[in-house]
Amino acid sequence: MKRQSWYILASLSIVILLVTSLSYMAFSAAMRVETQGRYSGVQNSVSAQLGGTLGRIEMSANNVFNEVEKRLSTPEAAINALESESDLNPDVRGYFAAFVPNFFPEKGTWFEPYVHHNDTTGYTVSQVGSARHDYTKSPWFIRARNIKMAFWSDPYFYYDGTNISGHYCTYVKPLYTLDGSLACVCGADITFEWLNTELERIVTRCRYTPQFSRFKFMRDFEFYAVVFYKDGTCLLHPSDKNITIKDEKVLKDIEEGRTGIIDMDIDGVPSRVFYGGIENLEWSLAIIAPISDLNKPFLYIGIGLALLALIGIIIVYFICRRINNA
């Protein structure tokens, strides 16, 4: 080709590469915003649904506790109240009423009837209060007595050698007599095994909702959810994942319930973590997605634009040759 044709080819090639580069930069900027919005939206949705699940536990527990508060005349009446309302929510592991020492003189210092699921199909009533299990020194009992309002307890492991041993979190509420004296502290126990199953169900439902699953851009949406306690301890997570937060800023955000995004390696997999607090709880929920999955749109669009640029340059080359031969 003549020198003039080469100049034309070079100039048009530069224009093609410039347009392609600007197109990729514009797509990348829009895609980053879309990705952040999509996964932050999932984090908010899963967090709200998990909070709603716990809210339903609170509602059914309050119905049980209200019935107990009406029947503080005798130990038997209080136990009957727990038993009569226990089927309101089968997801609750058990309900208890931990009475202040000598509230019923005949029951002595420790009286804590516990109505809980047994290994078959019904409920079993146990008396779990004792010198060995002095609930009056438990953090949840002391806190309920001091703040005089309902709350979710810190996660804990309960062990007494029976089938009710396990990892729990408890919705706690103090109950009072007509003269305003503390009668007992009631609780509704849920297991972390059940709560983990609920979290997985919520995540699966969110993954396949039309609002989220449309416009996949070659992504597989391989995200999962974990829940952190305020001190950064991982409470809920997939069984095959091991998540440890070491970043001081993220730990501070989790403690204060703030939202944020951070990239970190999880079990050797570079991942992006979208986290934020759960309303009315001292917990934070994080949506974690492999960066390789998040980057698929950038990779494939980049390859596609590069091929288009190459094809464009080849076409210009043959046009220039044809003009030159003419």
In short:
With 326 residues, this protein is of the alpha+beta class. 46% of the residues lie in helices and 23% in strands.
Labels describing this entry:
single chain, 326 residues, alpha+beta, 7-stranded antiparallel β-sheet, 5-stranded antiparallel β-sheet
Structure description:
With 326 residues, the chain is of the alpha+beta class. It contains eight helices and twelve strands. It has helices spanning 3-70, 75-85, 139-147, 192-207, 210-213, 248-256, 291-294, 296-325; strands at 94-99, 113-117, 123-127, 151-152, 156-158, 166-176, 182-191, 224-229, 234-236, 260-266, 269-277, 283-290. The strands form two sheets. Strands 1, 2, 3, 4, 5, 6 and 7 form a seven-stranded antiparallel sheet that branches. A five-stranded antiparallel sheet has the order 9-8-12-11-10. It is rod-shaped and about 115 Å long. 26% of the residues are buried.
H/E order of the elements? HHEEEHEEEEHHEEHEEEHH
C-alpha Rg (nearest Å) = 30 Å
Q: Provide a count of the helices.
A: 8
Question: Which secondary-structure class do the elements indicate?
Answer: alpha+beta
Fraction in helix:
40-55%
Question: What's the count of strands?
Answer: 12
Share in β-strands: 15-25%
The overall average pLDDT, rounded, is 85
User: What is the overall shape?
Assistant: rod-shaped
Unreliable parts: none
Distance between the termini: 11 Å
How would you sum up the major sheet? 7 strands, antiparallel
